[in-house]
Design brief:
Blueprint: H1 2-17, H2 23-31, H3 45-60, H4 86-98, H5 101-105
Helix pairs in contact: 2-3
């Protein structure tokens, strides 16, 4: 009976840890044609997703504070914020998940590479 209890506990823990958006879901939402389908001149969907994944995973590896990063505000096209740490990256993923494709295209939830 003890192994069953351990397995049950691990499954519960994995469900807690796995909630919310991740880099793969976020990048796919932005660039996949079946989702928002945002494109950038000279970049394939595969290239855009690859860069997005690199930036997202890199941000998650660095602990830090949110600072003045505010993804829910429209960013001027001339500015490209960076995801400097895990808290900024988490805010960005939440923003992308909850924002319309139309607003993502208008540079909300920046950066959109």
């Amino acid at each position: 009976m003890r192994p069953l209890l351990i397995l049950s506990s691990l499954l519960s823990l994995s469900q807690i840890v796995a909630c919310g958006p991740d880099c793969q879901n976020t990048c796919s939402r932005i660039y996949e044609e079946s989702q928002c389908g945002i494109s950038r001149p000279g970049q394939t969907v595969k290239d855009s997703i690859s860069r997005c994944m690199e930036e997202c995973n890199s941000g998650l590896k660095r602990p830090g504070d949110v600072g003045d990063y505010s993804p829910n505000e429209k960013t001027p096209q001339s500015e490209t914020p960076t995801l400097d740490n895990d808290k900024q990256t988490a805010l960005w993923m939440d923003c992308v998940e909850s924002t319309s494709c139309e607003n993502l295209e208008k540079n909300y939830c920046a950066p959109i590479w």
